[in-house]
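Morning, I've got a small favour to ask if you have a moment. It would help a lot if you went through both lines with me. I owe you a coffee for this, so here goes:
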Amino acid sequence: MKRVWWVFAAAVALYLPTVRYSYVQDDMLIIRNNAATHGVGAALRALDEPYWPPPSRGGMYRPLTTLSFGVDWSISGARPGWFHFMNALWHGLACALVVLVLARWLPESAAFVAGLIFAVHPVHVEGVANLVSRGELFAAVGMLGAVLAARQHRWALAVACAAAAMLSKEHAVITGVVILLDDWLQSPGARRYPTGFYVAIAGLTISFLGAWLVVGVSGDVAPPFFGATVGQRLAIGLPAVWRAATLLVWPADLVADYHPEVIPVRSGLSLPAVAGAFVVVAVPYLAWWARRRAPALAFAAAVAALAYLPTSNLLFASGVVLAERSLYLPVLLSATAAGYGFMWLERHWEARRAGLVVGLVVLVLAGRSYLRLPVWRDNKTFLLTLLAQHPESYRAHRWAAHVLAEVGDTAGALREFTRADSIFPRDPSVQGAHALVLLESGDTTGVAALAERARRVMPRQLLAVRAQFLIDLARGDRARARALADSALVWFPWEREWYRHYLQ
């Protein structure tokens, strides 16, 4: 299919402006300041280490993603432009694979349209322009590559692709289910995949989960879910599911952070929760209903649901309320629906008119993506955009407070911490950081209360423990401070030098 190359080129070209961009947000912790990504050798030595370095509690096991950063670091000499260029290439490859996977069920022109929609969909901006989202790209390439290899009965290659997907990001544990689904959707009477292949995929999946349990279990839970009951978690998670579904269809209001109050924290039944529950039921039903009528749509709906499930907060609390990067594979549902829509237009209109309509949609989506790209240029642009467009984001004010504290604007930092706390008072990291800035400024008023509030929610909150330690020292209670330091070094062994500085 020659048109595959056009999809690849369109996807890469859209994101070429990012080669002028810098490291943004989590890129700093995962790439720039993380020794594990500073070269191939460093990445290989970190194969048995969690993806998120201390002091993050994010855990996770993504050694292939880490290794790719190490390769890029060695090639580029730490220049972020090369990392961005590689993200664009991986996105282009994922888009090409989308076309090839859908070509089993759709005519070439419809698969081409679906690939273009997938390539330019605005939800992908975070997944491509933010470097640490590379795991999403790798997982998609590995998963779709495994599906294609299995179709060609290249079993070893399929297992290798599945392994690459899983070692890139955890949600790729669904790869075996996706292959099984693709097998199930074959035409009746087609040759099914051998049992031995599924045994190999199952063994791979179990092995990966074992490695993840040993190395990458995450202690990171989004603050809105601290202490939440199942009902309270669903009261927050279901509206997020509805918001995710609307972004796939109408990606007008894109946000870099969906934590409170961008998505309001609710404790009971709400209209968005009911809408989210409808989506939870409707998407699996669509996959079942379309299995014979429109198998490509069934495949896309099932993959979208499975890929989003780990971060949906429906089964358990995750580290995010909603993140656009988590919608990278779910966009397959929108893209496939567009492919079927083009088929309908071709049947009812002349081909030229149908092409013009699709071309207009692609241009609008590409334009929206292009205008969204500069948000990820650097940390300053990222933060100012978020504050301007969504001042209700408590994390935007928390980040602003850290920036102001770093440049010496203590008054501004304290103002922003207070604003963040007033929007969402249940994040102990805000209270811990607020307490530390107060201590550094010499103002001890309210510090103990802030530290106590933080540790009531999370007894081992790193910044709050630091603040409590400094409070004990200031009160002259050195024995209590030393006892707390001993406990802190068990919880946070990388903090040894910090505590030694105050106790020597």
User: Anything to note?
Assistant: The chain is about 65% helix and 0% strand.
